[in-house]
Amino acid sequence: MGAYFLRRLLLIIPTLFGIMVINFTLVQFVPGGPVEQVLAQIQGRGDVFAGFAGGGGDQAGSSDLVGEDFFVGSGGDSKYVGARGLPKEFIEQLEREFGFDKPPLERFLGMVWNYMRFDFGESYFRSISVIDLVLEKMPVSITLGLWSTLIAYLVSIPLGIRKAVNDGTPFDTWTSGAIIVAYAIPGFLFAILLLVLFAGGSYWQIFPLRGLTSDNWSELSLIGKVLDYFWHITLPVLASTISAFATLTLLTKNSFLDEIKKHYVMTARAKGLSEGRVLYGHVFRNAMLIVIAGFPAVFIGVFFGGSLIIETIFSLDGLGRLGFEAAVARDYPVMFGTLFIFGLIGLVVGILSDAMYVLVDPRIDFEKREG
């Protein structure tokens, strides 16, 4: 079993390398790189970036130095059509600042070497290292991911078990209808509905509109801080949980139904064991395997997939919003750094899922399955 997990760990390296190759290659063909972003700012706001490249205000102090054409191309390998009025030295200095004076292959190999040492560089436009920026935004996304996943499992597993035991009853019918409706509602639409109903949109102003803490959070007592924290995360967590909750409940129900019909369950009941002992002492271990297998998808889906929309709607400054803003601004170090970290976390969580399989049922042997 150790050899299996060792192979999985070693496979992380080529997988991450492939992710980096694909993303780096695609970016080379996307117009509007960081150099164009700076030139567009100069064109639109005059001397905002005057002296950026170490020169004086005379280099880019007036927007009339910039042509009327739009910018095309990307990086240092293209012609900046709209910048034809700017001094050539200024453009070259910008390219050196962003590292685009080097060939793409050299830039990529340098990035790979730095990433091997977990050196993700510094944001182009925020004057802060990528790792510090990610660590700064991580608590928000972790809050949404962990609480949403925890609540989804705590509610879905007992509900799914009860639905399996009461299969075909009115309870099973009306809960299934509610679950299907919940699954059909997009997360962003449910988030807006929560805002309208409970955050002062049109009805009740019970919960805050934005942020994870109040302005006077530092002045509150320990209990006050905890209550304020939960007060702020209630609506975002509910909006993040709804789709995962529906999927997990039906998955748990179907898994238990499959196990309840097996012979060992009939034998356990024939021996006079209580229903609770049969369900949680015998069926639970086998039925939970498929639910545990879905844990990485649930966690990663909440942590990354839905974080952008939820964070934007509730004005939360997390990783999803960071990645979106970096893509819009063509902040390549942040883009590549967050993709690398997201990919690494996803791969590690997948390995942890296999380890949980073995913990729940030691009979599972992945090496024999591979053979």
Automatic annotation (TrEMBL):
Recorded superkingdom: Bacteria
GO CC annotations on file: plasma membrane
PROSITE patterns given in the database record: ABC_TM1
Record SUPFAM superfamilies: MetI-like
InterPro entries reported for this sequence: MetI-like, MetI-like_sf
Pfam (any one): BPD_transp_1
Span of domain ABC transmembrane type-1: 138-353
Transmembrane region(s): 9-30, 142-161, 173-199, 229-252, 287-314, 334-360
Membrane disposition: Multi-pass membrane protein
Gene3D superfamilies membership: MetI-like
GO biological process annotation, one example: microcin transport
Keyword terms, alphabetized: Cell inner membrane, Cell membrane, Membrane, Transmembrane, Transmembrane helix, Transport
Family as reported in the entry's similarity comment: Belongs to the binding-protein-dependent transport system permease family.
NCBIfam families named among the record's database cross-references: PRK15133.1
Descriptive protein name: Microcin C ABC transporter permease YejB
Species annotation: Aquicoccus porphyridii
